[in-house]
Amino acid sequence: MKSKTVAVATLGCKVNQYEAAAIVSLFRSKGYSEVDFTEPAGVYVINTCTVTHLSDRKSRQLIRRAVRTNPEAVIAVTGCYAQTSPGELMSLPEVDLVVGTSDRDKIVDLVEASSKAEKINAVADIEKACFYEELPAPAGQGRVRAYLKIQEGCRNFCSYCIIPYARGPLRSRQPEAVLNEAESLLAAGFKEIVLTGIQTGAYGVDLPAKTSLAAIVEKLLRISGLSRLRLSSIEPNDLSPELIELILHSKIFCPHLHIPLQSGSDRVLKLMRRRYTTEGYAKILNNLREKMPNLAVTTDIMAGFPGETEEDFEQALGFIKDMAFSGMHVFKYSPRRGTPAAGFPQQVDARVKEQRSRRLIALGEQLTENYASKFAGLTLPVLAEQPFSGRGGCWEGLTPNYLRVVFACLENLSGEIIDIKIEKTGIQYQTGIII
Ligand code: 5AD
Ligand code: SF4
Hints:
Layout: E1 5-10, H1 14-29, E2 33-34, E3 43-48, H2 53-69, E4 74-79, H3 80-84, H4 86-90, E5 97-98, H5 107-113, E6 120-121, E7 145-149, E8 151-152, H6 163-167, E9 171-172, H7 175-187, E10 192-196, H8 213-221, E11 228-231, H9 241-249, E12 256-258, H10 266-271, H11 278-291, E13 296-303, H12 310-323, E14 327-332, H13 350-373, E15 379-387, E16 394-398, E17 404-408, E18 417-424, E19 430-434
Bound molecules: 5'-deoxyadenosine and iron/sulfur cluster.
Pfam families: Radical_SAM, UPF0004
Keywords: 4Fe-4S, Cytoplasm, Iron, Iron-sulfur, Metal-binding, S-adenosyl-L-methionine, Transferase, tRNA processing
Cofactor: [4Fe-4S] cluster
């Protein structure tokens, strides 16, 4: 008999975190109990990411770690790396089962059917997927902020990106299912819902009923008891006038948007097959900021895309500075097999990528500091999340505009929104006092 304990590790984006938590729910409903990934378990699930070669490497490291902790355990690998490279994973002696980004609802049965003698490759052709796959409500998402997945797939095919191949066509979740899950999250005590998806802005385009991201957001905003709604990410071209109207006029919709820019050079944007120019991007941001001067805009930037010259990079730095982002995720370009950019000439040298990435990170930190400093001395509503691990007697939480705030407090304030006067601002977090 295999031990009925499961440990799940996840890498990558918020969609993956959501799905890992749903996988935990699936195992729980079949009588398994969850243990920490560092402990011996009967089953290990590694929910992988493949956005860069580093994600692949980390996925393989987790597989090896699981086997070291319990050599007898069943090792199930799922997620984006599993979807795009099932052969590579099946050839690893440690792996017993590979499930891609679909059929996750069958993972417990597959785990129980697999054995060291009979490995299972359950990866299906994702291009044939037609419907959004419902998974049970995720378990163990904390108690204050919850992710809610509304959509699957991407059809943008940016030249560098493997995600469309890992996630397949656009499939939106039925509006009723989205609303029901939001209601249950609120009933469970959650205060903030973060909408996630692979291309969130494309929500609804594949549904027969005329719906859109703006339409579902409007419905969600009407649910009573919801304190905060946030979007995890949106492509610049998907910011519709209807959605912008909602953001401008709702007190519940957080004034924070993550809008991936990828590069601040028009030449590079074109090579990346991003369908906007720096001028277009700036126009969107300026329009938003005219009406919401304190809006927090965070972004993703890539360093060293093939063909990015020193001049392109300097230009990008200037543009990024002008956009005054409040936070930036920097990725060193990583060629992904099967994507057009992997075959582009003029791949950038690893050392140059590293240098550019460092300069971008430094600029990002400077911009974060600039943005945060605007709030010194002001009082902001903070949603208390958890005790602050860095210092005893303190709690931490987020403001609507995504500033992390640490404040002294001995009571349990989990899930409460408290007015905090910001005293000191910084890159990682701000400190303040309860008003
Ligand atoms: N190399 C590096 N970063 C990448 N991203 C996507 N594909 C690649 C790649 N091949 C980054 C983009 C995207 C984020 C999720 O990952 O910046 O927005
Ligand atoms: Fe990749 Fe572009 Fe899709 Fe984002 S929108 S996941 S960058 S292809």
